[in-house]
Specification:
Blueprint (H helix, E strand, L loop, with lengths): L29 H12 L3 H10 L12 H13 L7 H10 L2 H6 L7 H21 L1 E5 L2 E5 L1 H7 L14 E10 L23 H15 L20 E5 L8 E14 L2 E2 L8 E2 L7 E8 L4 H11 L1 E2 L13 E2 L2 E4 L1 H4 L7 H6 L3 E4 L3 H4 L4 E2 L2 E4 L2 E4 L18 H15 L4 E2 L9 E4 L8 E2 L13 E2 L13 E3 L17 H7 L5 H11 L13 H29 L14 H8 L50
Parallel strand pairs: 3-11, 11-12, 18-19
Antiparallel strand pairs: 1-2, 3-5, 4-5, 5-8, 6-7, 9-10, 13-14, 14-15, 16-17, 17-20
Organism: mine drainage metagenome
Protein name: Transposase
C-alpha cells in the first residue's frame, strides 16, 4: 500500500511591516549641499572611479542611485544636528533634495515607496567594497582605500586650507554600546585592556587567562578568541568609566579612539615655564573604531604614526601627505600599556609622549650608580628626603594646595640629571649630574661652572665629590620618561598635560551636544557598518567645531595699537623741523628746555566740528572698583 502524499507547504507570506516614512526631512540648503558634495569630491576622482569598479556600477542595467549620491546623502545626514545613523535618514535626505540638486548628483527623483530599499541596497554594496578594499591613483601616489582608511581621513574632508595646524595631538577613547540583543547571559570582561588604571598588567594577564579558560565551551567565541554575547557578532565586552549618562562598569559594544588637534608648545628646560604656540581649532584629525576591550596600543599607535600634518596654507589630502605628528598627550588609560606596545613605537616614529603616571608606575624606583629614578626622571642620589615621594595633585585640591605641590616638584627638578648630548643609535643616553651641570652649588664641592641663579644646597657630611662623572644609561631606564624632556609634576608639565582635556570637547559633542552616540544612535550591527556610518558623523562634528572656532576668532577683540603723541612720531618730527619758527630740539645736554608743537595737526586727527583743529575729548565712562 502506497504512503499518502504529503502536500507541499504553502510559501510563507511576505513580511509585513509598517510603511517607512522618508519624507520628514527638510530640503538641504545650498550651503549644506555644496559642502557635502565638496567633502565627497575631496576623496578624489580616482577613489570614485575605483569604487564604481568595485561595485560594478554602470556594468549592467543603469542604477537609479549612484554611489556618489549615497555618500552625499550620508554626509547631509551627518550635517544635521541630532540625526541618527539609519538608512531611513539617508534616504530622507535624497528625497528632500530639489530637482537641481538631484541633477548635480546625476540622478532623478526617486519614488517615495522605493527610496529606502534602493538606498539600503547601494549603501550595503559600498560598505562591502570598502570592507574588501581597493587601490586607486591619487596623482602619483597609490592609495589603498578601505574602511580603516576612510575612517581616519574623512574627518579632515571638511577642513579648509586656511586653518592653522599644529603637530600636537590629544588622544582619548569613548564607548559606543551595541544595539544587539543578548544571546548569552552573565557577560564578563575578557579584553586585553585592564578594567582600571590601578591594576598592574601582569595581574590582569593572569586574570584574563582564567576568564578566557572559563568561558571556553560556555559561550560562542569569535575569531579573536573572545566571547560573543549579543547578535552583533563584532561587539565585545569592555569596561567604561562613569559619566553623567551611566555608571562605571561593563558594557557590550565598541571603543572609539579620537585624535584631536591641540596647540603646540615649546619647552626651554625651565621647569616653571612653558610657551604655548598659536591657537588652533580642536578638530578631530584621525580616529579608530575597535571592539570594546581591544588593545589600545594596537589601535592608536598605527593611527598616530600614519597621521600627517598638512603644510601651512594647504588643505589635507586623501593620500595623507605632509609632516608627521611630533607630540601626543594621553592619560593613564594609555600610559599603563607596556613600553613595547605604546611609547616605544611612538619614540621610534619621532613622536614624543606626554602622559600621566599610574600609581604602579610611580612606585617603580630604579637605581643606577649615583642616580635614583623617581617618576621616570633620573635624580642625584643626594636628593633630599622631603622631595622623594611627592603626592599627586588631587582633583579636589584647592588652588593654594596645587601651587604648594607644584613648587615642590619644581624644586625637585633642580636635582635632576641632564642629558649630555643626544642618545646614540641604540638609545643609550649620557647623563650629567646637576652639580656638574651648574644647576646646583654646594660649599663642599669645587665647581668650575655654576649658574648665578643656582641655589646653595647642603650635602651630607663628608661628601667631597658630587658624582663619578658622566654616566651612560641604557634605554630600559627611560621607559617612563616624559616627552620633550619635561619633568613629571612640574609647572611646565602641568601646562603641557592640561590641554589633554580638549579631547573631551569632541567626546561631549559625540555624546550629548551634537549627536547621541548611545545604544539607540544606530541599528546597524557589525564593525564594518558602524565604521562607515561613524566616519560621516566625525566630519559633521569637525564642521561644527570649525564654525565655532571661527566665530570665536571673529568675536575676539583685535589688537589695539597704543596711540602716540603726534609730535613724538616720525611724521611729527619732520613737521616740527620744517615749521617756520622751529628751533633745534632739546637733546637733554643743555639746561634750557624748549617744547615744540607742529603748526598743523595730521589730517587723521583733525575734527572739522571743533575749532582750530582740536579734538573734543569724550567723557570717560566710570568703571566699577576692583575688589
Amino acid at each position: 500500500m502506497s504512503e499518502p502524499i504529503t502536500p507541499p507547504k504553502p510559501p510563507k507570506p511576505p513580511r509585513l511591516r509598517a510603511p517607512i516614512d522618508v519624507t520628514e526631512k527638510r530640503q538641504p540648503s545650498g550651503e549644506e549641499f555644496t559642502e557635502a558634495c565638496a567633502a565627497v569630491d575631496w576623496l578624489g576622482e580616482g577613489f570614485h572611479q575605483g569604487l564604481r569598479l568595485a561595485i560594478n556600477e554602470g556594468g549592467g542595467r543603469p542604477g537609479s542611485v549612484p554611489a556618489r549620491a549615497v555618500l552625499v546623502a550620508w554626509v547631509l545626514n551627518a550635517f544635521e544636528e541630532g540625526s541618527r545613523a539609519e538608512h531611513t535618514e539617508a534616504a530622507s535626505q535624497l528625497v528632500a533634495c530639489s530637482d537641481e540638486q538631484l541633477a548635480q548628483l546625476s540622478m532623478v527623483r526617486l519614488p517615495v515607496d522605493r527610496a529606502y530599499q534602493r538606498i539600503w541596497a547601494k549603501t550595503d554594496r559600498v560598505i562591502k567594497a570598502l570592507d574588501d578594499g581597493f587601490d586607486f591613483q591619487d596623482g602619483s601616489a597609490t592609495v589603498h582605500a578601505d574602511l580603516a582608511w576612510l575612517f581616519e581621513v574623512f574627518p579632515s574632508a571638511v577642513v579648509p586650507a586656511n586653518l592653522p595646524w599644529s603637530h600636537t595631538r590629544s588622544v582619548d577613547g569613548t564607548d559606543w554600546e551595541t544595539c544587539g540583543t543578548f544571546v548569552s547571559p552573565d557577560p564578563e570582561c575578557d579584553g586585553a585592556t585592564p578594567p582600571d588604571t590601578d591594576t598592574p598588567l601582569e595581574e590582569h594577564a593572569k586574570t584574563l587567562a582564567k576568564t578566557r579558560s572559563r568561558l571556553k565551551g560556555k559561550v560562542e567565541l569569535g575569531p579573536d578568541g573572545r566571547a560573543i554575547y549579543t547578535r552583533d557578532v563584532d561587539a565585545r565586552a569592555g569596561h567604561r568609566s562613569a559619566n553623567h549618562q551611566h555608571k562605571a562598569g561593563l558594557y557590550i559594544g565598541y571603543e572609539l579612539h579620537l585624535s584631536v588637534q591641540i596647540r603646540d608648545y615649546a619647552y626651554a628646560g625651565k621647569p616653571g615655564q612653558l610657551t604655548y604656540g598659536l591657537d588652533v581649532p580642536n578638530i578631530i584629525t584621525s580616529a579608530r573604531l575597535v571592539p570594546a576591550g581591544a588593545h589600545r596600543g594596537h589601535a592608536t599607535v598605527p593611527m598616530l604614526c600614519a597621521e600627517r600634518v598638512p603644510e601651512p596654507g594647504k588643505a589635507p589630502t586623501p593620500d595623507r601627505t605632509g609632516s608627521p605628528v611630533k607630540v601626543v598627550v594621553w592619560d593613564r588609560g594609555y600610559s599603563l600599556l607596556a613600553f613595547e606596545n605604546a611609547h616605544g613605537p611612538l619614540l621610534l616614529a619621532g613622536i614624543e609622549p606626554i602622559f600621566e603616571l599610574t600609581d604602579a608606575q610611580r612606585s617603580q624606583v630604579q637605581v643606577l650608580t649615583d642616580v635614583t629614578w623617581h617618576d621616570g626622571t633620573p635624580f642625584s642620589k643626594y636628593l633630599p628626603d622631603h622631595l622623594r615621594d611627592l603626592p599627586r595633585i588631587g582633583r579636589n585640591d584647592s588652588a593654594e594646595e596645587r601651587r604648594r605641590i607644584q613648587a615642590l616638584y619644581d624644586e625637585r627638578a633642580r636635582w635632576r640629571y641632564s642629558n649630555h648630548g643626544r642618545p646614540d643609535a641604540d638609545g643609550y643616553q649620557r647623563l650629567m649630574c646637576p652639580f656638574c651641570a651648574g644647576r646646583l652649588r654646594a660649599s663642599q664641592l669645587t665647581q668650575r661652572k655654576v649658574s648665578k641663579n643656582a641655589p646653595l644646597v647642603t650635602l651630607p657630611d663628608g661628601v667631597e665629590k658630587c658624582c663619578g662623572g658622566v654616566i651612560t644609561a641604557a634605554p630600559s631606564y627611560f621607559t617612563l620618561a616624559q616627552g620633550l624632556g619635561l619633568v613629571y609634576g612640574t609647572t611646565a608639565w602641568t601646562l603641557a598635560y592640561g590641554p589633554r582635556v580638549l579631547v573631551e570637547t569632541a567626546n561631549s559633542l559625540l555624546k550629548d551636544k551634537y549627536a547621541a552616540l548611545t545604544r539607540t544612535y544606530s541599528k546597524l550591527m557589525g564593525l564594518a557598518k558602524r565604521t562607515f556610518a561613524l566616519a560621516f558623523l566625525l566630519a559633521g562634528i569637525n564642521r561644527r567645531i570649525i564654525k565655532a572656532w571661527r566665530a570665536k576668532q571673529a568675536e575676539a577683540p583685535a589688537h589695539r595699537k597704543r596711540l602716540r603723541r603726534h609730535q613724538d612720531t616720525l611724521a611729527g618730527l619732520v613737521a616740527a623741523a620744517n615749521a617756520p619758527e622751529a628751533t633745534e630740539p632739546d637733546t637733554g645736554l643743555t639746561g634750557t628746555s624748549t617744547t615744540h608743537h607742529p603748526t598743523t595737526a595730521p589730517p587723521s586727527r583733525t575734527d572739522p566740528s571743533t575749532p582750530s583743529g582740536k579734538r573734543a575729548r569724550k567723557p570717560r565712562a566710570s568703571r566699577p572698583l576692583r575688589t
